[in-house]
Design a protein that fits this description.
By secondary structure, the chain is an alpha/beta fold. The protein is about 40% helix and about 20% strand. It has two domains: about 240 residues, 3-Layer(aba) Sandwich (Rossmann fold); about 140 residues, Rossmann fold, CATH 3.40.50.920. Helix 12 links the parallel strand 13 and strand 14. It is globular and about 70 Å long. The termini are far apart.
């Protein structure tokens, strides 16, 4: 039976991984992710988790070990952040192409330079084209739930893709929150044993991931793309069945007070809760505003997103990364949003703000400022592609 606890969010993530009976954890410590794998090593060392913990010499080696263990049929987990993900990324493309359902928690952190250990979504966006499923937590309870769900999603025989679970570094990773922690019997009822479609077998050796010459490379990428497109219904099924069992429902796109909203904020991660507080205050002042939160970023839930915002006059997209497009093209989330509207009849005014970079606070007042700015803006002329918010003079 689930029990209510107060626990550091990173520790809770590790506990959730333990409840999933992982076979292999291969990881290298990096701030602010370290507490996740540190606690997993304690669970293994103390005999609470029957798994192999591989303390590697780098994140690149961590993903190499994860690829080998997953290909051999082991339920596999790792975790990283920022520069750690950058070093690991070469192998992340391989994990996806080989259809290996590794689960990785990423305590999102800004990428250098300058050096920052604080939160933004630079590493999340760095990973967006690697072919991993990407889901995003807003708080500790969601991180526990999404971690368990990630194994179910990735290991579904109709999916077989790696899954990245994102949670904001320090903003979530190092705070203590109340949450419900399931017991192992509940998790085992939801999460069946891992039965890979294909696995390496020493008695029947094969080569996987060999050279893709010109004659086959495009076809291999096409096959991977088609399989990735087909993931969506199975991701939703995993969420629906989790909701039925545990009473906590998740969707690819989640909304707050959007039914009659003229202005909608779009974002991911922990600042969504600040945005909802701001919406409550603006609603009390008579402003019709709401929030759309992306729970799933890859595969991108285009149809569900359009349904969530199609009645709005204004859409404010809050990106938490600077992507250096040169000013004429929006940042990553806003690019997705604008592309969705392009072929549809409804096209609201879309404004892109870059917020919370390197851990800078995003306040209730900042959301009010953004809403007032888009309400006062004119449709004539060429709008700027994006604007930095809360920049110090």
């Amino acid at each position: 039976m689930s029990k209510k606890i107060g626990m550091e969010v990173s520790i809770a993530c590790a506990e959730a991984v333990g409840l999933c009976d992982v076979d292999v954890v291969a990881a290298y410590p990096i701030t602010p992710q370290t507490h996740v794998v540190e606690h997993l090593s304690e669970l293994v060392a103390d005999g609470h988790l029957d798994a192999e913990f591989i303390p590697v010499e780098s994140e690149h080696s961590a993903m190499s070990a994860c690829i080998g263990s997953s290909a051999a049929g082991a339920r596999t987990f790792t975790s990283t952040s920022a520069q750690g993900y950058a070093l690991m990324s070469e192998l992340c493309y391989i994990a996806s192409a080989l259809r290996l359902p590794i689960v990785m928690a990423v305590a999102n952190r800004a990428l250098s330079a300058p050096i920052s250990i604080w939160n933004d979504h630079a590493d999340l966006m760095y990973a967006r084209d690697t072919g991993w499923i990407q889901i995003i937590a807003e708080n500790g309870q969601e991180l526990v739930d999404l971690t368990i769900q990630a194994f179910r999603m990735g290991e579904d025989p109709n999916v077989m893709f790696p899954v990245q679970v994102n949670f904001d570094g320090f903003t979530l990773s190092h705070v203590i929150e109340p949450m419900m922690l399931p017991d192992k019997a509940e998790v085992q009822k939801y999460l069946p044993p891992f039965r890979p479609k294909l696995r390496l077998d020493p008695s029947n050796p094969v080569t996987i991931g060999p050279v893709g010459v010109v004659e086959i490379y495009t076809e291999a990428r096409k096959a991977q793309d088609e399989a990735f497109k087909n993931c969506m219904p199975h991701i939703i099924k995993a969420w629906d069945e989790f909701g039925k069992q545990f009473g906590r429902q998740y969707k690819p796109v989640e909304t707050y007070k959007t039914e009659d909203a003229e202005t909608i904020f779009v974002m991911m991660g922990s600042i969504s809760e600040t945005a909802m507080t701001a919406v409550d205050a603006m609603r009390a002042a008579g402003k019709k505003v709401g929030v759309v939160r992306l729970r799933l970023f890859r595969p991108f839930p285009a149809a569900a997103f359009f349904d969530a915002v199609k009645g709005a006059k204004n859409v404010i997209v809050c990106d938490r990364v600077s992507s250096f497009t040169g000013g004429d093209v929006a940042a990553p989330v806003a690019l997705e949003v604008k592309s969705i509207f392009y072929d549809r009849k409804h096209y609201p005014k879309v404004r892109n703000f870059l917020v919370g970079l390197g851990g800078r606070d995003v306040s209730v007042e900042n959301f009010t400022e953004m809403a007032d700015q888009i309400a006062a803006s004119k449709d004539d002329g060429v709008p700027v592609a994006y604007e930095f918010i809360n920049v110090r003079e």
